[in-house]
């Protein structure tokens, strides 16, 4: 489960419900280095492991001109990767034989299932600045042992949500739905504005929601959410009143609380440590479950299992 629900999360009588409820939790990102690129990691946190099935959120860049993305072949199990760019280009290779360039406004969604490997790099011809997010979605029991898959969505549905430009990456915002695969009830929306805005977005009360800001700042009532933190909004909201005082880019993540306890280590999402240990051994031994990736980058060795 994603954690206990506070009294602020439950729906309450409208007579006593303030028009703009505060964040339930706020957590600072942890900065990590990924292939020479600065990354702010907002999920998972010790206090907040998941938001719906979202279990990992990396905000990378904007990169320095001399710091292209170079992440060599590495494995995944039990998750989907969701890649969304604000600037730059990334070339994806995987063990299904996929070679796919992604640009801003497009979505790459890779399903690991029982096992997949991939590599990501900045093409030599691309602009040097790289800025975007990579998210992981935990797969439920029904699909996590299944076959791997890959989707590229060159176009995604957009909505004008009270002045916010909203791009629906996965799931639905109101009546507008993305064609991207979802294995659990889920929503992911990229929000942007070029100037001051006050807008209201529809929300599903059975979903918990969170905000991640990539640039600018988002106001939720009297609270301001800035880059480098995640604001967990809880359950029970049927709309979200969000404001900004200038150009802003943010993500709204949500979904039904995930029913299983997750075990996460390195690039693997499972249910217990033995499962993660077997996946590590299979990667290190070159087991066929992960296949081969055509890439000029070096294969990434697994760290020692704790």
From TrEMBL:
The keyword Methyltransferase does not apply. InterPro entries: Pirin (IPR012093), Pirin_C_dom (IPR008778), Pirin_N_dom (IPR003829), RmlC-like_jellyroll (IPR014710), RmlC_Cupin_sf (IPR011051). Residues 1-23 are annotated as: Disordered. Residues 10-23 have a biased composition (Basic and acidic residues). Its cofactor is Fe cation. Pfam families: Pirin (PF02678), Pirin_C (PF05726). Keywords: Iron, Metal-binding. Signal peptide: none annotated. PANTHER family: PIRIN, PIRIN-RELATED. This is Pirin family protein. Residues 191-287 form the Pirin C-terminal domain. Belongs to the pirin family. Binds 1 Fe cation per subunit. Residues 37-137 form the Pirin N-terminal domain. The lineage of its organism: Bacteria, Bacillati, Actinomycetota, Acidimicrobiia, Acidimicrobiales. Fe cation binds at residues 74, 76, 118, 120. GO terms for molecular function: metal ion binding. It comes from the Bacteria.
């Amino acid at each position: 489960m994603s954690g206990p629900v506070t009294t602020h999360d439950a729906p309450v009588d409208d007579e006593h419900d303030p028009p703009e409820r505060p964040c339930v939790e706020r957590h600072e990102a942890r900065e990590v280095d990924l292939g020479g690129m600065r990354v702010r990691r907002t999920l998972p946190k010790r206090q907040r492991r998941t938001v719906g099935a979202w279990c990992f959120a990396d905000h990378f860049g904007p990169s320095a001109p001399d710091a292209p993305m170079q992440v060599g072949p590495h494995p995944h199990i039990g998750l989907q990767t969701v890649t969304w760019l604000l600037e730059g280009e990334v070339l994806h290779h995987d063990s299904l034989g996929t070679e796919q360039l992604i640009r801003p406004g497009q979505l790459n969604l890779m399903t690991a299932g029982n096992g997949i490997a991939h590599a990501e790099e900045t093409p030599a011809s691309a602009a040097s600045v790289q800025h975007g997010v990579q998210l992981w979605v935990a797969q439920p029991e029904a699909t996590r042992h299944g076959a791997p898959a890959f989707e590229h969505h060159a176009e995604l549905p957009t909505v004008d949500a009270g002045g916010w430009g909203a791009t629906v990456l996965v799931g639905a915002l109101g009546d507008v739905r993305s064609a991207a695969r979802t294995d659990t009830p889920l929503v992911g929306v990229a929000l942007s504005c070029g100037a001051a805005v006050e807008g209201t977005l529809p929300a599903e009360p059975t979903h918990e929601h969170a905000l991640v800001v990539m640039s600018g700042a988002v106001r939720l009532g009297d609270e301001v959410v800035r880059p480098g933190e995640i604001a967990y909004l809880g359950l029970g909201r049927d709309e979200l009143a969000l404001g900004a005082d200038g150009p802003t880019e943010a993500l709204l993540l949500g979904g039904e609380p995930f029913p299983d306890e997750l075990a996460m280590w390195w690039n693997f999402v499972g249910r217990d440590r033995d499962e993660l240990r077997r996946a590590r051994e299979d990667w290190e031994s070159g087991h066929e479950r992960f296949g081969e990736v055509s890439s000029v980058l070096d294969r990434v060795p697994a760290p020692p299992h704790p």
